[in-house]
Amino acid sequence: MNATASQGVRLEVRQLAKSYNGQPVLQDLTFTVERGEIFVIMGPSGSGKTVLLKHLIGLETPDRGEILIEGQPVHSPETMNRHRVAMVFQSGALLNSLTVAENVGLYLTEHRLLPPAEIRRVVAEKLALVGLQGTEDRLPAELSGGMKKRVAIARALVIEPQLIFYDEPTSELDPLIAVTIGQEILRLNRRMGVTSVVVTHDRDLAFGIAHRIAVLHAGRFLALGTPAEVRAHPDPVLQQFLQADFRFEPEPVAP
Amino acid sequence: MFHDLGEVLLLLARTFRALPHTVRQRRKVLEQLFEIGNASLLMACILSLFIGGVLALQTGPVMAERGLQSFIGQIVGLSMCRELAPVMMAVLIAGRIGSAMAAEIGSMRVYQEIDALRTMNINPVHYLVLPRVVAISIALPLLVVFSILVGWAGGALVAVTNYQIGISFHGYVKSLGNGIDVLDVVNGLLKSFGFAVTIGLVACHQGLSTVGGPRGIGRSVTKAVVNSIVMILLLDYVFTRLLMHLD
């Protein structure tokens, strides 16, 4: 972790709880993500990972509990104005009516942070960072899943985030692209000291990039610690999740 | 229904507060204006021409029988200005533009594009609702002026060519000039402005509250069009009463 040179921010979650139609989805979650840390939230499908992420970025309001960025509530507009927070959505969530360049430069254009020529330069620079130079004029519909995700990362980078959330960054990607995305997350963390929260059910990605991992199951953390601590955790459900593979017992052959 | 109405009023308040941002969003307003014009001008022309024509055809022979053909221009003119052009254009725009707005914003909601805007600290009301409501509020009154003129022309065409009516073009124009006041046109424009704001807000609200996948988008589009038309007809009565008092 590059804590000393970090421009990242500290994220604190206290007693977070959420139910939908009386069904608890998140149950009293408490954890802290330190500045410059890569914190991976892992768990099987339906465990509440994406709901948790939506709460962390302020898209959902919790029934109970607090989410604080540098001690300030995430739902306060002041917090989002003061700290630069970005999210890379599972689908990329690129605006389909805009070109790649317009998508990547959207934050700068809408907030009028730079003149148009400078925005074009920054966009080209960020696209080059994710290996997509020359795609500026293409529409999202013309890109593959992996390219969309990389454009989404470039769009997040333009914000120069202090805190970045990734929702299933390697889902629907082939292993080579998935590794590239994982390397990208690590590189950004090392280069910019950005605090990263990654939600995934990809075990290779989680153990490959995380400083700490939290394993979510039925809205609660089964384990929270370094990758080594999580691997050694005795919980049978967690071990089943970590060790599941495609090797089947050979079926007995009829005589 | 009352829940929807409350949310539309809330959206109206938010859009009103966002009005100072219109200059910043002028490019999007122009894009929307172009889209509205492109999608509805030909339809507006055909619709208005035939409405004006039918109006002359229905009233002309009856009036001519009683020797009142010199009032045909006045009847077509007043009906187009005060009632037919504002209401018909509003219904046309609700169907063609309101549905497109609800579908576009609804699909942006379903595919998390609106969530992405929020995470970039971009207010969806400023970015999506404001340009659309402003554009439709400019476009609909302009379309109504266009519709009135084409409707008058349609009426003239039938009045002059139909042997049962038998009025000259000059007589039709003179009747129109005698019976129509600028205030009649203003009356229609005020109504159409109210309809435009209603269509824009109802469509954007339905889009923003879309849930579910493609089926949800379909539901939002249907609700946007149906609710807009119901609101247009209700408001038409209210506006007519109010403007009668002002007259």
Which key terms come to mind for this protein?
heterodimer, A: 255 residues, alpha/beta, Rossmann fold, 6-stranded mixed sheet, 4-stranded antiparallel sheet, globular, B: 247 residues, mainly alpha, 86% helix, 0% strand
Description:
The complex is a heterodimer of chains A (255) and B (247). Chain A has 255 residues and is of the alpha/beta class. Chain A folds into two domains: 1-49 and 57-84 and 164-255, P-loop containing nucleotide triphosphate hydrolases (Rossmann fold), CATH 3.40.50.300; 94-160, no CATH class. In chain A, 36% of the residues lie in helices and 24% in strands. Chain A has ten helices and ten strands. In chain A, a hairpin with a 2-residue loop joins strand 1 and strand 2 (23-33). In chain A, helix 5 (116-129) packs across helix 6 (145-158). Chain A is globular, with a radius of gyration of 19 Å. Chain A starts with 10 loop residues before the first strand and ends in a 12-residue tail after the last helix. Residues 1-6 of chain A have low confidence and may be disordered. With 247 residues, chain B is an all-alpha fold. Chain B has one domain (26-246). Chain B has helices at residues 2-18, 26-65, 72-110, 113-119, 124-161, 169-179, 182-208, 214-246. The model of chain B has no long low-confidence stretch (mean pLDDT 91). Chains A and B meet through strand 6 and helix 4 of A and helix 3 and helix 4 of B.
